[in-house]
Write a structure and sequence with these properties.
- The protein is α+β, with helices and mostly antiparallel strands.
- It folds into four domains: about 200 residues, Metalloenzyme, LuxS/M16 peptidase-like (Cytochrome Bc1 Complex, Chain A, domain 1); about 160 residues; about 190 residues, Cytochrome Bc1 Complex, Chain A, domain 1; about 190 residues, Cytochrome Bc1 Complex, Chain A, domain 1 (2-Layer Sandwich).
- About 40% of the residues lie in helices and about 20% in strands.
- It has 26 helices and 23 strands.
- The strands form four sheets. It has a six-stranded mixed β-sheet, with helices on both faces.
- A hairpin with a 2-residue loop joins β5 and β6.
- α10 crosses α13 and α14 crosses α19.
- It is elongated.
Length: about 850
């Protein structure tokens, strides 16, 4: 092993508007379906006919969709339910068994057809049924009355949920659901059953589409329906609506409903896929809160004037505690932010609705989807990428009658505070654009590093980083995930190329999501923690790590991971899973920093930084800070022995502890290390011998020098590899060399060689994007080159023989009484 100066280790139902939960897709209005779907001409003055061509079903399906949006809005779902009941009863009277369902803003019909003649008859009959005026003595009115009564028995739990029902399209009563009169029903029928509000669809073989199209074309023209008027949108600054949800949810619990309206229906339904994923960002971020919240449902819907998404989030009473308003508000603000971001970022191609129709397993479902989506449209009075989000919060009283829910004003005030907190970045971002690189890089890490670790848990931070990276790597086949472990930072490094067709910003967000989710959100599983601990324990058992662990224990007593951040065998083996979980929580709650190496432009870098920030839970008014650093104990000068197995190569470390308060010491030490290192360096002259056939054999096989332990326990460290027979002599020569340097034996040639070494090191580092990402995260800038006088002054003040910490690792010696270095106290360190 050659000593490295930077000790950073990268270890390797109702009638929703054709919503299908979190898997719905939409298409704009009146555009023909492509591929195996399409629109058939029916002639002027006739409703559109959408066709889904498919084989193998045996029979085909016809569907009719009608929108009642804007008709008698004060009656809610009654309009759609009553018209559906009217049509169903009229068809049944003619011997046709069809499924007709009404909802908040329309109704849909679907029926099977087994032959061209049957299909033609069904289309003719449906036309007749839809266009026949309602009379006062019509038998179908009794069916309408029954459905109205049933609707009244399914009332909205609270009027505050009217917007939710309007969004999802579900059929709920409003509490004033008296059966409509014949005249009222006729006014609804004539307004809804006409051109502009009715669409037909057929799913099956070609004969079905031909029969339906020809029947519609040869029939008389249809009357025009009432024009569709876009519904009003909520104001941008609408505050949360709070209602009493007692009886709807468990006592003492809370429910948050986020409603997001979009100008394009595709945008809402495409976002629902990610938002409804139980392992997706929304569910994961909510589960990581102090009061874990659960996503109960995500429903995306298409409407004639855009799209709508409703997400329901529940919080249990046991998690709310005495700070219920703040915890509810945190969940509400997080959900609102995540939903708005996901909708804004959603890829929404215009053929999503068409693909939805073709993916249906049942021809009736395929026809119904095609019919409804042919009515869906974009909101014309709003920018196509605009999103309006509103919040509804339900609170249930506790089991104790005196345990009343928090006041609505308190909830609203806390939501306002939490929303501001979520909009204020909490992650420090450092970005750089490197155009033309093959990959983008994102490093997310806690700036606290190993500060709080002691001898009993040395390596717990490394366990967190390794567990998180292993866990994250399993979920992303096209990204590389590595733990970042250093005394000044614990985190995750992610890099990878863009996917085919992926935008640069989407590429950056994907990498950032992997890194931030791994470190800041996902709980670590016991299996991944065990794998990480096994990897680190195996590493700690190596000769190099045992020697370094012994040195770290002497340089930073009680805090060995300040020098060796990967931990010691003792610390790793005695740390429990609970300790690892607490460390992960502490890292998440402390200051975090992200470094982004973008390979396209600044917008890409900014997108990655924003994506990282949104994963980090925060509370209003919180202050993120590392724990107070414990005082550094005085390094324990002396000689320490590490026993190695028989036959193992011997080595030694010689360390000169620095004063952490001396800001210029690390730079001077690094330049002296560079003068010592290398094939032509001072160590080579002292240990390699003069060369030539008659020259004595070298005292050592290898040597190196570096500054370790920054920033809290810095030390200039020399490493020597030598046969056991010459190790003592090699160490003695190195000590003598350090003493000569203390007496001024360093000249301009040595300084020039050090400068050349720094130039080579910078060039090598600049070629490695991993090094560049770490340097960017640290904000590393080349330290000012010390003058020869400063190097000599440092040597005089620091390179004292009595301050040296020496660790010798060797196999058992033949003479057990032999001392490794005569004249020095010997202490044994077996870091197993």
């Amino acid at each position: 092993m050659t000593l490295a100066g930077a000790r950073a280790v990268v270890l390797a139902a109702s009638l929703p508007a054709l919503a299908c939960g979190a898997g719905s897709h939409g298409a704009p209005a009146n555009q023909p379906l492509r591929g195996s779907t399409g629109a058939r001409p029916t002639g002027d003055g006739r409703p559109s006919l959408e066709v889904v061509l498919r084989e193998g079903d045996g029979v085909g399906a016809l569907s009719v969709a009608v929108t009642t949006d804007g008709l008698a809005p004060d009656r809610g779902a009654l309009v759609g339910v009553a018209l559906a009941a009217l049509v169903e009863a009229r068809l049944a009277a003619r011997g046709i068994e069809a499924t007709v369902a009404g909802g908040w803003d329309g109704w849909r019909l679907r029926v099977l057809a087994g032959s061209p003649a049957e299909a033609a008859g069904l289309v003719d009959t449906v036309r007749t049924v839809l266009l026949a005026p309602v009379t006062a003595d019509e038998a179908a009115l009794s069916a309408v009355a029954r459905k109205t009564a049933a609707l009244a028995h399914r009332p909205l739990p609270d009027r505050a949920l009217t917007d939710v029902a309007r969004c999802t399209g579900e059929a709920f009563g409003t509490g004033s659901d008296a059966p409509p009169t014949a005249a009222e029903l006729e006014s609804w029928r004539s307004a809804a059953h006409g051109l502009g509000r009715v669409a037909f669809a057929a799913a099956g073989e070609g004969w079905l589409a031909d029969a339906a199209a020809q029947t519609l074309a040869r029939a008389l023209a249809w009357p025009r329906a009432a024009p569709v008027v876009e519904s009003p949108w909520p104001a941008i600054d609408t505050r949360a609506v709070v209602y009493d949800a007692s009886g709807e949810i468990a006592p003492g619990s809370a429910r948050v409903i986020v409603i997001a309206r979009t100008a394009a229906p595709e945008r809402a339904v495409s976002a629902a896929l990610a938002l409804g994923d139980p392992h997706g960002p929304l569910a994961t971020r909510l589960a990581a809160l102090d009061a874990p919240a659960q996503v109960r449902a995500v429903t995306a819907t298409s409407h004639v004037d855009g799209g709508c998404l409703a997400a329901t989030v529940d919080l249990e009473a046991r998690d709310l505690g005495s700070d219920a308003p703040a915890r509810i508000a945190t969940a509400a603000a997080l959900a609102r932010q995540e939903i708005a971001v996901d909708i804004a970022d959603a890829a929404a191609p215009s053929d999503l609705g068409r693909s939805l129709a073709t993916r249906a397993a049942d021809p009736r479902e395929a026809a119904e989807r095609a019919a409804w989506w042919s009515l869906a449209g974009h909101r014309s009075s709003t920018a196509q990428d605009e999103v309006r989000v509103t919040l509804i919060v339900g609170l249930a009283a506790g089991r104790d009658a005196s345990d009343a829910p928090a006041p609505a004003d308190a909830i609203r005030s806390e939501i306002d505070r939490a929303s501001l907190a979520w909009h204020a970045p909490v992650v420090e971002a450092r970005t750089r654009v490197e155009r033309g690189q093959g990959e983008a890089w994102v490093l997310v890490a806690s700036t606290c590093g190993t500060l709080s670790e002691s001898g009993g848990d040395a390596g717990v931070g490394a366990t967190v980083a390794t567990s998180a990276s292993v866990q994250a790597a399993e979920g992303g086949a096209d990204v590389s995930v590595e733990p970042f472990v250093a005394a000044d930072g614990i985190g995750v490094l992610v890099h990878g190329p863009a996917r085919g067709g992926e935008s640069s910003e989407a590429h950056a967000r994907r990498l950032a999501d992997v890194a931030a989710r791994a470190l800041a959100a996902d709980p670590l599983t016991a299996g991944h923690v065990a794998r990480a601990r096994t990897t680190l324990l195996a590493r700690s058992a190596s000769t190099d790590e045992r020697v370094l662990g012994a040195l770290a224990a002497a340089i930073a007593p009680g805090h060995p991971s300040w020098v060796d951040p990967t931990g010691t065998a003792f610390g790793l083996s005695t740390t429990s899973d609970d300790t690892v979980s607490m460390k992960a929580a502490a890292l998440r709650e402390g200051p975090l920093r992200v470094a982004v190496l973008a390979n396209v432009d600044a917008a890409q870098a900014a997108a990655a930084a924003r994506a990282v920030d949104r994963w980090v839970a925060r509370r209003p008014g919180e202050a993120r800070a590392c724990a107070t650093a414990p005082p550094l104990s005085v390094p324990r000068a002396g000689t320490y022995a590490v026993d190695l197995p028989a036959g193992a190569p011997s080595e030694a470390l010689i360390a000169v502890p620095l004063q952490p308060a001396d800001e210029e010491a690390p730079a001077a030490a690094a330049w002296i290390a560079a003068a010592l290192d290398g094939p032509g360096g001072l160590l080579a002259r002292a240990l390699a011998g003069p060369g030539g056939d008659a020259a004595p054999a070298p005292l050592a096989r290898g040597w190196s020098a570096a500054v370790l332990g920054l920033p809290r326990a810095p030390a200039l460290v020399v490493r020597i590899e030598a046969p056991d027979t010459t190790l003592d002599a090699a160490v003695a020569q190195a000590r003598a060399l350090l003493d000569r340097l203390r007496q001024g034996a360093i000249d301009d040639a040595d300084r020039s060689r050090a400068a050349a070494a720094f130039t080579r090191a910078r060039t090598t580092g600049d070629l490695d994007p991993r090094v560049r990402a770490i340097d960017l995260w640290r904000g590393s800038a080349p330290a000012a080159a010390p003058s020869l006088e400063k190097m000599r002054a440092f040597a005089v003040a620091t390179l004292r023989d009595e301050a040296l910490v020496i660790v010798a690792a060797r196999p058992p010696r033949v003479d057990p009484r032999a001392r490794p270095f005569p004249g020095r106290e010997t202490r044994t360190r077996n870091r197993e």
